[in-house]
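Subject: Interface between my chains keeps coming out wrong

I've been trying for a while to get a sensible model of this assembly. When I model each chain on its own everything looks fine, but I need the whole thing in one frame so I can look at the contacts. Pasting all components below, labels as-is. Any help appreciated, I'm running out of ideas.
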Amino acid sequence: MCRLLAWNGAPRYLEDLVFVPEHSLVHQCRNALICKTPINADGFGMAWYSDRPEPCLYKDTHPAWSDPNLAQISRHTKTGLFLAHVRASTGTATSRNNCHPFASGKWSFMHNGQAGGHMQFRKRLDTMIPDAYYNHRLGGTESEAIFLIALGLGLDADPIGAVAAAVQQVEAVSRENGTTPHMRFGACWSDGTRLYAARYASDRHAPSLYYRVYKEGVIVTSEPLDSDISAWIEVQPNRALVVEGGEVMDLPFTTALAA
Amino acid sequence: MCRLLAWNGAPRYLEDLVFVPEHSLVHQCRNALICKTPINADGFGMAWYSDRPEPCLYKDTHPAWSDPNLAQISRHTKTGLFLAHVRASTGTATSRNNCHPFASGKWSFMHNGQAGGHMQFRKRLDTMIPDAYYNHRLGGTESEAIFLIALGLGLDADPIGAVAAAVQQVEAVSRENGTTPHMRFGACWSDGTRLYAARYASDRHAPSLYYRVYKEGVIVTSEPLDSDISAWIEVQPNRALVVEGGEVMDLPFTTALAA
Amino acid sequence: MCRLLAWNGAPRYLEDLVFVPEHSLVHQCRNALICKTPINADGFGMAWYSDRPEPCLYKDTHPAWSDPNLAQISRHTKTGLFLAHVRASTGTATSRNNCHPFASGKWSFMHNGQAGGHMQFRKRLDTMIPDAYYNHRLGGTESEAIFLIALGLGLDADPIGAVAAAVQQVEAVSRENGTTPHMRFGACWSDGTRLYAARYASDRHAPSLYYRVYKEGVIVTSEPLDSDISAWIEVQPNRALVVEGGEVMDLPFTTALAA
Amino acid sequence: MCRLLAWNGAPRYLEDLVFVPEHSLVHQCRNALICKTPINADGFGMAWYSDRPEPCLYKDTHPAWSDPNLAQISRHTKTGLFLAHVRASTGTATSRNNCHPFASGKWSFMHNGQAGGHMQFRKRLDTMIPDAYYNHRLGGTESEAIFLIALGLGLDADPIGAVAAAVQQVEAVSRENGTTPHMRFGACWSDGTRLYAARYASDRHAPSLYYRVYKEGVIVTSEPLDSDISAWIEVQPNRALVVEGGEVMDLPFTTALAA
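Reply #2:
Try treating it as a single job with all components included. I did that and got this:
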């Protein structure tokens, strides 16, 4: 399982959250607490929004703590909306294309969890990716497949419903394949304006997900960044968040949001 | 277009051919002669056979001349059968998974050329890869697809016919897609005993391919390694080679070898 | 010899100069014109100034054209002052620490050229670096040594004189060592406000250096970025530039600026 | 602190020790037991001897477990004498040049430990490296400095005494600098015939070092590779080993071996 962190609010340096806090994302690379795999050293990635509509993607296969470019860029880049991720592989190779976040057009997406046995049904997942998005299929993870399937299911029109539907479809394939856990899903995604997040599992073990509201904005993360635990709100399983303008909406994570 | 080089014969150091000659493969990275793209710096790879049945694969995304590990390994590894490749991308990304050679079981395979427009029909190529070999689909090149399709068509039973059939199938997709050149194909492949090679194109521009017979073995290469041009025999278009025990068989490159 | 490019003026995207023009820096990686080595694929680097006093350094050993992170960052980062460099090694290894620009505090520095035989007198160069700056000695190039020696000679107080003095000292060592060319020096450096540049050689072959004044700012570069040659002004040997506020001062490149 | 492993005996595949055992070196990257830093993911390296006098060096900055080339080469390379190392940095950067083992001529060397405060007196260490070996000073670690200083002190003539003298010299600098621990030293080195090792510290905390004698050869390692603890012999502090022909000599680690 991986670790993830997102910010939506006033512009701030990436390093303020990625490197600096007591329990920053880079710290979690070596010492994740609420996590079965305490080491997340199979690459990392960040997507942030500048004044272009599409995000800037920076990803690499080194452990986050040992990349001097990451430290530099985090120290010099300010943004009001970003996603950051450190990876612990569940089977697929350590390659830049398998690092999160993934991006297509204005959208970025990152995932913590897995579809059990996904290495066995990758071809089927590939087939489920619409032709229009197939050239964005750069790696082999089920996470990237969920994102591209969601794009095909109408992410623009229904940002939560489309992801829920994609998760449901991929879970169904895992279920049919008979491999467990069918689906573990903690994720954040963004269109450059709103930040979305969801927590879900096909069993009792939904990946941890928290948020905290500050005056200047909102952090969503797989584990609290400091020991002031009471300030962090745990997202419940089967729930999704929409973060915008300092406000957090907590909604059901279903395929029929609009309905 | 890329540059490739293969050896089948007495054990020798990789560096004897990859680094040392007047016009070695690493030299060709910067100064290819018979080639539209004189720079081949989008990664490299080697597959060599030791005393295990499957080949050893060493591939990386740096230019071959700047990888100190490659220089070391080439200087210390002796083998009687190897394939080596330097890459100039025709569109797909510079990633290890897109570097040649590719390998599956005992087989290794490398390609110089392209199927025109392959980025547009990658999903279709992926669908043509048999389920049994899909987990060997690591990158996005049409070259790797040809190899995996050939495996599904019976590479073990008919090493030349299966590759010819795979090339034909991929060419058909390119033709249907209306993108040229439909197929340019210079390639070497091996099962650990024999070395195979073929030269073919759907138009008049089949990628160059040469071989030379020495007392100790045979070199197959996309361009001669020295200026003793008369010693190098040009493979003709639509022909395939089988190299074994110092002998070279020159055969038609057709799908019906056995027939 | 390497290729270099710098901008001082209105904030603009890095990619506008590094990737976009007819003859951009990334284009020059493969097709340098005014250069003995047309391939500059031994790494690259950029230093840009944001709202912190010290520059942001992004350097890597891949060819500039094949790094997807570089393309992303160049597309999303705007700055009014930056240095960019593509490297063709003159002997030292391809490693991030040997890539330009170098940085220390507010200063950044990049160099095109060489001190002949520098691999033979590296220890002596190291000894010339003041203790206070020795922890910034990360690689083995004579370029980095010149920069750190200049820092020790008072770069803050006399930005041109200190570099000229450092060049003179290193040239003296090369001269004593009897290796030619003793010194070839085309360089840009910056304190985050002004952009400095100089052109010099101990023989007749000073590395090329040009600048062009636009309404929005000034480009300094080792070769013109477009075919409108008349708009580019060639810096003469033994001359230095100070660029600030859209103005270019052309001064002698001597150790006694203040005198 | 790092983890290290060496073999001297009958030729065997590198992977038999580096990847396969219960507690292999690659396993120790994530789960070192007898070690303050359980994660050793700041690069790795191997030096092995083939039929050339000098060793083959393969080093990289990725965690050992995520490098597909390392897995391939370890699976296909057989050797009777090798050194392998996984690194946890004590301050110097994650770069290939700072990865162990180091090599010069026929010699290879790797180290687990540190000279306290070495970042503060690197210039002094550099000055202690003889001119003849200065071009082998590629990185910035005190480990590499100890090796090159030992070469200058006569490693060929007195392989244990020269290392002990180099350790003493570097410890003296640390002592003078007032930084602790002055010296922690667990190391292996080889001339291609014999394998040497030593365990030492300026305080009570000498880095752990063990060996085990098999019918086919001898393993020296920073921690046992399996749970059959009684079979592993702990090297005592201030002792050195000479391994040759299946025999282990246990000697004092002093500067005056010959005396």
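Reply #3:
Confirming on my end. The two ends of chain B are 33 Å apart (CA to CA).
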